Amino acid sequence: MLTFTLGTFAIALNHLLLISALALATFVGWRVAKRGGDNPESVLFSLFLIGMLAARIGFVAVYWSHYRNDPWQVIDLRDGGFLAWPGVIALVLASVYRGWRRPGLRRPLGFGVASGLAFWLLATFSLTIYEQGTRLPEITLRNAAGETVQLADYKGGPLVINLWATWCPPCRREMPVLENAQQQRPDLTFLFVNQAESMQSVATFLETQGLSLSNVLFDGSGRLGQAVGSMALPTTLFYNTDGRLLGSHLGELSHASLARALENFDSVPANSARKLPCPASATC
């Protein structure tokens, strides 16, 4: 399961874990402060923001080449571009400084930060292990020629699967990024699995947007999203040659966040392309 869904509301599990870690740290700090010390609630929230800012700055620094030509993308947090370790380091250092400045905060803040970090690290590690144990679903789809194809037939090489729809603004914004990656990475197979829309509406969208995508597939009932546990769009999944999930990204991809996600794959020789389950006369 990649998202937590309640009615029409859906949130990525990794985001839910962050919020839960902050809530736990606040609760523990408050309980400890009742036995003596200052309530660290407001301090913990500011530390959380410091950690997130450091995580973003760290990500931008590492992938600066993808932001150089469009610096405004640095403040566009919708791509989910964060590096955990700079954020954790900044949070711990800021906690030590706050505790040094305010002795009454030391014990409640220390327990709060420690419990929140421990929960987040353990939960994130467990979620990663769970995700990487899942396999490519056995799902029947249709290609642009209207022919039935099995998703498992694409197994045998590195696979990037994008779940999208034309009515989804983040999906529309990230399409040029994915189109460019498909052209630049012939060693990877990109599948664009449309969710519950007609072939005509998708064809019209691609034509009007000037997009040239290979391997556009159609999931008329949205079963793939249900199978992978994500009801949010866009969702991008990364599978290895054995059909094992290496990672996932919920939300819009930028050039930088996609570059980071593709680091999951080992180098594959460019001449190792395999035949896809698509007739030569069709754009699939």
From TrEMBL:
List, alphabetically, the Gene3D superfamilies matched: Glutaredoxin
Domain Thioredoxin, residue spans: 130-267
List the InterPro entries hit by this protein, alphabetically.
Answer: Lgt, Redoxin, Thioredoxin-like_sf, Thioredoxin_CS, Thioredoxin_domain, Thioredoxin_ResA/DsbE_sf
Q: Name one GO biological process term.
A: lipoprotein biosynthetic process
Q: What is its main location?
A: other
Query: Subcellular localization, per the record?
Result: Cell envelope
Spans traversing the lipid bilayer? 6-30, 42-64, 80-97, 109-130
Look up the domain of life of the source. Answer: Bacteria
SUPFAM superfamilies referenced in this protein's UniProt entry, alphabetically: Thioredoxin-like
Mention one GO molecular function.
Answer: disulfide oxidoreductase activity
Entry GO CC: cell envelope; plasma membrane
Keyword terms: Cytochrome c-type biogenesis, Disulfide bond, Isomerase, Membrane, Redox-active center, Transmembrane, Transmembrane helix
According to UniProt, the name of this protein is Peroxiredoxin
Q: Which PANTHER family does the annotation name? A: THIOL:DISULFIDE INTERCHANGE PROTEIN DSBE
